[in-house]
Design goal:
Catalyzes the interconversion of L-alanine and D-alanine. May also act on other amino acids. It comes from Metabacillus lacus. InterPro entries: Ala_racemase, Ala_racemase/Decarboxylase_C, Ala_racemase_C, Ala_racemase_N, Ala_racemase_pyridoxalP-BS, PLP-binding_barrel. This protein has about 375 residues and is α/β, with parallel strands linked by helices. It folds into two domains: about 210 residues, TIM Barrel (Alpha-Beta Barrel), CATH 3.20.20.10; about 140 residues, Lyase, Ornithine Decarboxylase, Chain A, domain 1. The protein is about 25% helix and about 25% strand. The strands form three sheets. Strands 1, 10, 11, 14, 15, 16, 17, 18, 19, 20 and 21 form an eleven-stranded mixed β-sheet that branches. Strands 4-3-2-9-8-7-6-5 form an eight-stranded parallel β-sheet. The chain has a two-stranded antiparallel sheet with strand order 12-13. α1 packs across α3 and α10 packs across α11. The radius of gyration is 24 Å and the shape is elongated. Bound molecules: pyridoxal-5'-phosphate (PLP). The site of pyridoxal-5'-phosphate has 12 residues, from α9 and β9.
Length: about 375
């Protein structure tokens, strides 16, 4: 355990066993001939870049993927030496940084290599080609544009195509018609590239869970590596149970009795209807516990309690039917005894998807990593 500590009792706990379990289950599900790319973009969906990357590799991931070049460089600086794919757009003029850090970039239009040539000094860039088969985001749409990139790559002495991929927009929806359409386009575009040694991949978590036989060479495993279902529709059809890795906790720093008519927080919008115990929690919207979570619930001593009054930048209040000692643990996401508040519950309350919840817990909240129920590492982004 390193010496990074935190002085405020609010922390996110990351269960590394859960991440490793989810990866091992997925590997079994997709089979030994399909590679597993652990997607650790956006601070590993809020769980922590390096810690998740290391756990993923320990559990058998073959490669890492991030969205941006900066994230790849961060992982290299953290000492990770495995192949890393940057899936998002990198600027052609940053080609040398990618080569220096041995990061695999994504080439997504016909002029990318031509523009990058002027900025290349030494070494060789490895890249994957991105095809847009219907996501309408990054990627090449036509066979002719693809052929131009492949031709440029063959004649290039500074860049080498190592893979080709696409991304599905509806793999998490039970109606698979648009998925089939995209899959068909992908198959057509990659015709002839199957035995060239290029790595071919198309699947995200949803695809891997539902269509393990359609992944070609590798799966890009994101959300479900963290133990979350790719959509609510998919919760009922998971081929194996997932284990949530993320939980969020704080402690009561003040507990006071309020009489009928007394008010709580900005705007004085909450008024006690009868005698009530109010506990103040040191977590607020600057931590990602956003104002719209007013009226949501937390767990105290294994029971639900409501957040009352407006959520402040650094604090919020809950109502209790009886007093609890100062320092009592309060769980905002996760379980206490038999009660559980899954990430999905918070997402549903906010009309959003689980992805957004863990990503939004800010770096003011320290991350505490556990294995076998024991704390292995604490990262306090403020004091490191
Ligand atoms: C984020 C991302 C993934 C991971 O998707 P999940 O649904 O989290 O598994 C895969 N591929 C690309 C291109 C992505 O941007």
């Amino acid at each position: 355990m390193n010496d990074a500590v935190y002085y405020r009792d609010t922390w996110a706990e990351i269960n590394l066993d859960a991440i490793e379990y989810n990866i091992k289950q997925m590997k079994q599900h997709i089979g030994t001939t399909t590679g597993l790319i652990a997607v650790v973009k956006a601070n590993a969906y809020g769980h922590g870049y390096a810690q998740v990357a290391e756990a993923a590799l320990k559990a058998g991931a073959d490669m890492l993927a991030v969205a941006f070049l900066d994230e790849g460089i961060l992982l290299r600086k953290a000492g990770l030496t495995v192949p890393i794919l940057v899936m998002g757009a990198a600027r052609p003029r940053d080609i040398q940084a990618a080569i220096d850090y041995q990061l695999t970039l994504t080439v997504f239009h016909r002029n990318w290599l031509k523009e990058a040539a002027a900025f290349h000094r030494m070494g060789k860039l490895q890249f994957h080609i991105k095809l847009d088969t219907g996501m309408g985001r990054l990627g090449i749409k036509s066979k002719s544009e693809l052929e131009e990139v492949l031709k440029d790559s063959c004649s290039s002495d500074f860049a080498e195509a190592k893979g080709i991929f696409t991304h599905f927009s509806t793999a998490d929806e039970l109606d698979s018609s648009y998925f089939q359409e995209q899959f068909g386009k992908f198959e057509t575009l990659i015709k002839g590239l199957q035995n060239t040694g290029m790595m071919i991949h198309c699947g995200n978590s949803a695809t891997g869970l539902r269509f393990p036989e359609r992944l070609f060479n590798a799966l890009r495993f994101g959300i479900s590596m963290y133990g979350l279902a790719p959509s609510s529709e998919m919760r009922g059809i998971l081929p194996f149970p997932l284990k949530e890795a993320f939980s969020l906790h704080t402690k009561a720093v003040q507990v006071k009795k309020m009489a009928e008519g007394e008010k709580v927080s900005y705007g004085a919008v909450y008024e006690a209807e009868k005698e009530v115990w109010i506990a103040t929690l040191p977590i607020g919207y600057a931590d990602g516990w956003i104002r719209r979570l007013q009226h949501s619930e937390v767990l105290v001593n294994g029971k639900r309690a409501p957040i009352v009054g407006r959520i402040c930048m650094d604090q919020c209040m809950i109502a209790l039917t009886e007093p609890v000692p100062l320092g009592t643990q309060v769980t905002l996401i996760g379980s206490q005894g038999k009660e559980v508040i899954p990430v999905d519950e918070v997402a549903e309350r906010l009309d959003t998807i689980n992805y957004e919840i863990t990503c939004s817990i800010s770096t003011r909240v320290p991350r505490v990593y556990t294995r076998d129920g024991k704390v292995e590492e604490i990262v306090n982004f403020l004091l490191k």
